[in-house]
Amino acid sequence: MIKSWTFGRRLATGFGLAVLILLVIAVVAYRTTDSLIANDALVNHTYQVRTDLADLLSELEGAETGVRGYVITGSDSYLEPYQATLGQIKTTFADVQKLTVDNPNHQRRLATLSPLIDSKLAITKQTIDLRRTQGFDAAAKVVDSTEGKILMDQIRALIAEADHEEADLLVRRDEGATASAQATMAIILYGGLAGIVLIAMIGWFITRSLSTQIGAAVGQVQSSSSELQAAANQQATGAKEQATAMSEITTTISELLATSRQIAESAQRVAQIADQTAGAARAGHGTVDTTKESISGIRQQVDQIVAHMLGLGKKSQEIGAVLDIVLELAEQTNILAINATIEAAGAGEAGKRFAVVADEIRKLADRVGGSAKEIRTLIDDVRSAVNTTVMATETGSKAVDAGSRQFGDVAIAFQQISGLVSTTTEASREIELSTKQQTTAVEQVNVAIANVAQASRETETSSAQTLQTASQLAGLSKELLRMITPQVAA
Amino acid sequence: MSDIRAGLSSRAAELRHAFDRTFAEPRRTDTPSTEDFLAIRVESEPYAVRLSEIAGLFVDKRITRVPGRVATLLGIAGFRGTIVPVYDLCTLLGYPATEAPRWLVMASAKPVAFMFDAFEGHFRISREGIVPQEADERPRSYVREFVRAEDHIRPIVHLDSVLDAIGKQADEAPL
Fold first, then answer.
1. Would you tell me which of A139, A190, A430, B154 could form a disulfide with A130, CB atoms 3.0–4.6 Å apart?
2. Pick from B28, B52, B121: CB nearest A366
3. Distance CA A359, CA A343 (A)
């Protein structure tokens, strides 16, 4: 149950018990001391009463002695003690009466003593008056009488009786004071010892309890401090790395910002170029229409070329046919010339002149044949070229057809391109706008990253401080543990 | 194109000049130091035939096949009202038979015609250009001399010996 108590409750309970013990000791000691003081007061009171009684007797005797001196000498100087004590006697008597007001024996005795004192003083006054008025003898007579002595003896007896009673009281009160003092000493001694023992036990118990619990807590604090120190160390390292990373990020963001600005400028240029491209695409669209018409014209021209080439081939064939005839004629002329030469050789002298002519005819036929063969070669080349041209032209015509179709596709594609260029222009403008916004955002990010970098540096600094604080805390907890449980700390 | 036209024009002018020159030159005297030949081609081989050994040159003559055991005899054909036998000069010279040679010459010594593959032209050459066959040279059938014409050295077909051989074959061949 006590283990579940708080430190305050334990300390309050411990100190409460100690206070209770001290309170008991203090009350008892107070009471005994009070009793001791009361006894002491009573003793003092007794001493005061006895002193006043002695003073009263002394004053009476002084007054009597002064009067006797005056009587003997007649000098007034002897009356000075009498006159000095005359008022004092009453005062002293009143003090005694006042001091012994609680004692009926003394009051009764004082009641008896008072007339005796008055009588004695009256006698004394009478003596003085007699000495002054009647001289020594009258006064000596009074002194010599026993009346005064009797009074004085009675007074002495009463004062002695009162003193004796006070002495008895003094003895009793002294014994009571001694008993009170012993009781007080015993209470102070044994109560103090008991209180010391109890407080020591309570202190030992509280110390042990708190030391155990605080020691465990301090141990935990020390462990936590070590963990906190390690964590702070890691945090400091992490903060440093974070600061380094943030610095790199800042650099990267700066580069990104520069790149974003370049992209924004490029996007702006792209938008301008896209505008120009859109204009060029519109112009190109017109050019495509014009080219389409031109291609139709080319196709017609190609058809005409094919027709003309076919006609040329046909004419070449006809030329070839005519040339075959010419060749045939040349060949036959040659044969005839040779045969004529042969015949002329057989005709004797008359045939020689004919042979010359025949020879010339043969040569001419040879030349004609050679020329015809050359022409034939040329015609063949022309026909071959015409055929090649026709085929090429037909191929070209087909190519023109295909080109025309492809150009149609190209025109459609160009139209699509024109539309896409318009879309691209819009997209470029949007990209330009977005890029500007992105640049602004990157600038904001740059500022934010700079702030974060500053925060990281501050975090690094605070982490170092935290680490230092954790180290100090670990040291303090160790010191505290050493203070609580040295053997554990050692 | 203009170059070709200019070349043809100069060629025509040259022909015209040569033709005119024949009428301007004086009458030539006999030139026995030259000899005329026909340049022919037998089985793509160049040969030459003396013009003095033939009676005429013909082309695309219709040959009528006749039955017989002489392999070289292609048939008969009519020449100026005369029916003459036509022999294949290609097989006579030892080459394999070819299809339908167009040209033929008729020998002057006998009425016999010889068909050959191609007629390449007529040329006249001095007698110094005719060389006899060397003894150590590979012997050719019916060839005794050679003539250099243009770029070729042509063997001269000796038609008289051919005719003799045909005559011998005709005599030896049974009817």
1. A139
2. B121
3. 12
Interface check A385 vs B, CB under 8 A = no
- Note whether B38 contacts A338, CB cutoff 8 Å: yes
Tell me how crowded residue B171 is: count the other CB atoms within 10 A of its CB.
7
B17 touches chain A (CB under 8 A): no
Enumerate the domain spans of chain A: 2-226, 228-484
Q: Which of B29, B36, B49, B106 to mutate to test the interface with A (most CBs of A within 10 A)?
A: B36
A460-472 tens-digit pLDDT: 788 888 888 888 8
Given a cut of 70, the residues of chain A with pLDDT beneath it are: 1-2, 485-490
pLDDT at residue number B156: 92
Put simply, the answer to whether B55 touches A342 (Cβ < 8 Å) is yes
Residues 99-128 of B with CB under 8 A from A: 108, 121-122
Coil, helix or strand for A29? helix
For B35, the closest chain A residue by CA position comes to A345
Closest residue by Cα to residue A305 from A171, A204, A397: A397
Residue pair B104/B90 in contact (Cβ under 8 Å)? The answer is: no
- What does DSSP say about strands B113-116 and B73-79: parallel, antiparallel, or unpaired? unpaired
- Classified by CATH at the fold level, domain B28-172 comes out as OB fold (Dihydrolipoamide Acetyltransferase, E2P) (2.40.50)
Residue B21: CB atoms within 10 Å: 10
Cα–Cα distance for residue pair A29/A194, rounded to 1 Å: 14
Question: Of 1.10.287, 3.30.565, 1.20.950, 2.30.30, which CATH number belongs to A228-484?
Answer: 1.10.287
pLDDT of residue B115: 92
With 60 as the cut, is the pLDDT of residue B29 above it? no
Looking at CA atoms only, how far is residue A339 from chain B in angstroms? 5
Reduce the DSSP state of residue B98 to 3 states and report it: coil
- Any A CB within 8 A of B3 CB: no
Which of B122, B123, B124, B150 to probe by mutation at the A interface, max A CB count within 10 Å? B122
Question: What DSSP designation does A24 have?
Answer: H
pLDDT higher than threshold 60 for residue B31 = no
Q: What residue segments make up the domains of chain B, in order of their start?
A: 28-172
**B89 CB neighbour count, 10 Å cutoff:** 28
Instruction: Read off the pTM.
Output: 0.42
Alpha-carbon distances, residue B153 vs A243, B48, B164 (angstroms): 106, 9, 25
Residue A286 has a pLDDT of 82
Residue of A nearest to B55 (CA): A342
Q: What is the average per-residue pLDDT within B38-57? A: 90
A-B Cβ pairs (cutoff 8 Å, strict): 41
pLDDT number for residue A328: 84
The DSSP annotation for A277-311 comes to HHHHHHHHHHHHHHHHHHHHHHHHHHHHHHHHHHH
A335 contacts on B by Cβ (under 8 Å): 57-59
Name residue A239's amino acid.
A
| Exposure string for A90-111, b = 16+ CB within 10 A, e = fewer | bebbebbbebbeebeebeebbe
pLDDT exceeds cutoff 90 at B49:
yes
Residue A451 CB neighbour total at 10 angstroms: 11
Alpha-carbon dihedral A80, A83, A85, A88, rounded to 10 degrees: -140
| Structure-token match 């017109």, residue found | A286
CB contact under 8 Å between B38 and A352, yes or no, is no
